[in-house]
Amino acid sequence: MGKLALAAKITHVPSMYLSELDGPGKGQRQAAIDGHVEIGRRCRELGVDTIVVFDTHWLVNAGYHINCAPHFAGVYTSNELPHFISNMGYEYDGNPKLGELLAAAANRHGVATMAHPATTLPLEYGTLVPMRYMNGDRHFKVVSVSALCTVHYLSDSARLGWAFRRAIEDEYDGTVAVLASGSLSHRFAQNGTADEYRNKMFSPFLEHLDHEVIRMWQKAEWLDFCDMLPEYAAKGHGEGFMHDTAMLLGALGWRNYDRGVEVVTPFFPSSGTGQINAVFPVSPMPRQLDGVGMPSAPALAGGRL
What we know:
Layout: E1 3-10, H1 15-18, H2 30-45, E2 50-60, E3 64-67, E4 71-76, E5 88-94, H3 96-108, E6 113-116, H4 125-134, E7 141-149, H5 154-171, E8 175-181, H6 204-218, H7 222-235, H8 243-252, E9 262-270, E10 273-279
């Protein structure tokens, strides 16, 4: 019935917003903004009606949650970095029907998930920043999924992504894009050194690690990457423990995924962290969960992961 038309791993660094404003950061993140605009353009070209964002700034301590209110509007200031994102207005339309389909599918496949179609929950900036550049005209409906998951297995997040794909293709009458909104390595600069690290990685180790991961993605080395994801998330200080990446790969077939990524915005450092915009071409995947090669939960535990 429905179609997953586009999948991507994207940055949401708040310095993108600063890049619009007069000041020392003006224009510094134009390449990242242009990458978001390009992904939005492709979504339009593909007939996407709803963008589902796996948001690593939405922290949850129990269950998986889907913000699928019919409408979102407000003025946002980041509680983490109020000097980066302050008083940013937003307005988007949601998709309650799709959110409820996604939650029901995840629950059927053993991942405890709740949809929130009637809620005052605001959107977090892992959703708001990309929507600012991809969806400023409210062309797309928006569904946001919690991906800063503190007591969750990465394997459950991968299973969640797989269930979402099944719900989209088997039950939804429309076309969807999914975005994993989070960084590569995510070790912020130590307090007091932020200006020094504004365009610099925290360490050479993390920079080399990120570049090796990008090479693996481009070469479609998914068996190896899926095996190393828990350790990469731990040693790379993964944003949201990299649950967004597990969700994305689950929606693409996990170990059975067979495509190399297309880098839209090349790797760049930001405040010590590694960032990218990359499109993961969508290909067919097994229709049965036992054909996806997904390990049991303890195999992807990685401590709290």
